[in-house]
Structures are given as structure tokens and as C-alpha cells.
Amino acid sequence: MDEQGVGARVFGPRQPLPVRVTPVQGESTGSFVNRLAHGQGLELEALLERVGFGRASQDPVRVRAYPSTTEMYVNERGLEYLAVLCGSTARALQEVLPSTAAARLLKETETTTALWKWPWLPREGHLVPLCGTCTAARGVRETVWMISTDRWRVCLEHLRWTDSDATGGERGLSLKLLPETAEAHREREALGQRYGAVGEQLFADAFQIAVHWWTHLPDTARWVRRAWDAGLEPLAVPAAPLVLMPEAAAMAAQLTAFEHSGRRDGQARTRWMEELRGQMDLWGVDFSVGRLALMDWLLRHSTPAAPASDTVGGPAAGTAPQVRQASAGTPGAGVPQELRVSPGHERAAQPTGVLGAASCLPWQLGQPACEM
């Protein structure tokens, strides 16, 4: 073994820190290490020296802000050090902290030294605060930063919304006056549970369509009212995901029904558009503006998916199963059912954010209407 490897083993931690700190499922590594340090009465930069070696600012104030701005990544030896310090095992930490998964460990093949890094931005996901009520219920007195696939999180237990912009503070916004937004989140989860990746893709398309509408028609009465109820400025970009979710969920159901039908002839497309015109009239969304996004989606989905072969308990080839109302309590909701998306869905995917990467539509939240 080389001298560097021997040194790493000799000088690594041998026993846990005196005060145990429990990680939260889905928490960022940086957030947990920060809380672990504070539990010992230390600042973050002092504990980092025990986890391994890395590059960080010489400004302690800046280092202490890292957990709220970026993620900490470790190599395999760094993970071992961290496990010893918190009185756990590397495998147990990997089950709780997403950024310590094997695929996300630093690949430092030239050294056996324990290493850590804080890149400019998280490599995957976004840092979003855990619901303040959830945090308090765990007896934690500081912000717990989660690695989230979206820029926001919805706590259905406490009806709170948190996002990466800390809209409404790190405790989040109350959704008690916006039950339809919470329900839309449940519908999104149910769609993913029912149809797997296809359900996620169709919801992403629906969300991009709703973003298109909001970008062109931000003063639509229902969206302005929801923003006010949440205590937000109606035209603020961070407010958009919160106020658009109900329409995005309803739109996702319409897209799913269209894919299920398998019909793409002119009559079927015209009937579908007319149904949506009526729905948009009820929402107060100007159809003459909103139809552009719908027509683009229809163009990309003009070819039906190839019928699936017969499967046990699944639809027979060439048949279109009826769309059922998705809900988390539906028996079998956790098992993805057969549904294929049009082959044209992949042609114009925009890998700029999670919902954008899953969608075939190019519009992204925050893009000016004149550039869409």
C-alpha cells in the first residue's frame, strides 16, 4: 500500500462524534454534515477537516452558506469517514442521503485519500427546504435542505410549499387557502404511480403547456387570485408552479386520454381541441392564445404509439383501455400500467430542468413570451 493510503487509514476518524445527529430521508449531504457539525458545537469548516480533504473558500462565512446553495459530494473513502463520524455505515447513509449513492460518489481513481467537493451547483436536483413543520416535528432547530427533483416540494401532511428560491421563507408557504394545488400534486403522483415514466412525461408536457399560457396570460383571474391567497406577487416567476398546478394536472388527464385513444385523424383531433376550448373558457384562459401550445403538442404526437403485445392483466394489442381516475388509494396504483407515448415525443426534448427534460415541448419557466 502506498504512503498516501496508509496515511488515510491512520489519520481517519476512529469513533463517532459525541452527539448523534439523524439524517432525514432525502436530505442533501451538505445539509446533514452542517447539522452534524452544529450538533457538536462546531462550524461547518471545522468538521470538513475530519471528513477528508477538499477545496473550499478561505472565507468561513461563505463556507457556512454552502449547504443552502450547493451540494457536497464525497468519494468512497470520504463516505467511510462520514459514516464513522456519525456512528453509521456507508450503506445506511446511501439509503438516506441521495448524493452519496454509488453513482454520485467522486471518481478519484488516483488516490485513496478521503475527498469532498462543493461544485458551483448541485449535479442533480435542487436544494429545497424541508417543510418547516416537518423540521420542527423532528426536533430540528435549523433548516434541513433536501435534494429535490423539482425546484419545489409540497408537504401534503402539513399543506406547505417550499422552493429553491425560499419563497415565503425557509418554512414555506401555507396551502390551506389553495387546496386545489395540493390536490393537483396528489394527481401528479398518482399519474406517475399508474403509468411510470410515461405518466411523468405527460405531466411534464401538461406543465409546459400551462407555463406557455401563464407566460402569455399571467393576469388570468384564477392565477392572480391564487398568488394573492399565497401572499405572492401574481407576476413573480416563483409563483408560477404553485398557481399553475391545478390546470397542469387537468391538462395531464386530457393528454393521457388522447394517448389512450390511439386516434389521430382530423375528426378526433378537432373534437379534442373543442373539448379543451370549453375547458379553457371555464378557466378564463384565452383559447386563441393558448391553442398554439396545444397545436404544437398535437404535431409532436401526431403518430400513435405502436400497440403493446398482450400481457397478463394488461390491454390486448390494438385496444385502448379506458382512462380511469387516478388516485393514490386506487388498488394497484403503485404498479405502472401499460401506456405508450407517441414516438414523436422524444424529438424535441429540452434537457433544461427536470420537467423540461421529460417534456417534448421547448418552453421553460421564466422564458420571456417574445422568445417562445
Map the helices and strands:
Layout: H1 3-11, H2 29-39, H3 44-51, E1 53-55, H4 60-65, E2 73-74, H5 76-85, H6 90-96, E3 115-117, E4 126-129, H7 132-137, E5 145-148, E6 152-155, E7 160-163, E8 173-174, H8 179-195, H9 197-216, H10 221-229, H11 240-261, H12 266-283, H13 287-300, H14 354-358
Parallel strand pairs: 1-3
Antiparallel strand pairs: 2-3, 4-5, 6-7, 7-8
Helix pairs in contact: 2-3, 8-9, 8-11, 9-11, 9-13, 10-11, 12-13
Secondary-structure element order, N to C: HHHEHEHHEEHEEEEHHHHHHH
The first-to-last residue Cα distance is 58 Å
Q: Which percent range describes the beta-strand content?
A: 5-15%
Which structural class do you get from the secondary structure elements?
A: mainly alpha
Low-confidence stretches: 1-10, 310-335
Major sheet strand order: 1-3-2
What number is the mean pLDDT? 84
Q: Helix count, per DSSP?
A: 14
In short, what is this structure?
The chain is 44% helix and 7% strand.
Q: What would you note in describing this structure?
A:
The protein is mainly alpha-helical and 372 residues long. The chain has helices at residues 3-11, 29-39, 44-51, 60-65, 76-85, 90-96, 132-137, 179-195, 197-216, 221-229, 240-261, 266-283, 287-300, 354-358; strands at 53-55, 73-74, 115-117, 126-129, 145-148, 152-155, 160-163, 173-174. The protein has 14 helices and 8 strands. Helix 8 runs antiparallel to helix 9 (197-216), helix 9 crosses helix 11 and helix 9 runs antiparallel to helix 13. The protein folds into 3 domains: 3-117, no CATH class; 131-174, no CATH class; 179-371, no CATH class. The chain is elongated. The strands form 3 sheets. It has a 3-stranded mixed beta sheet.
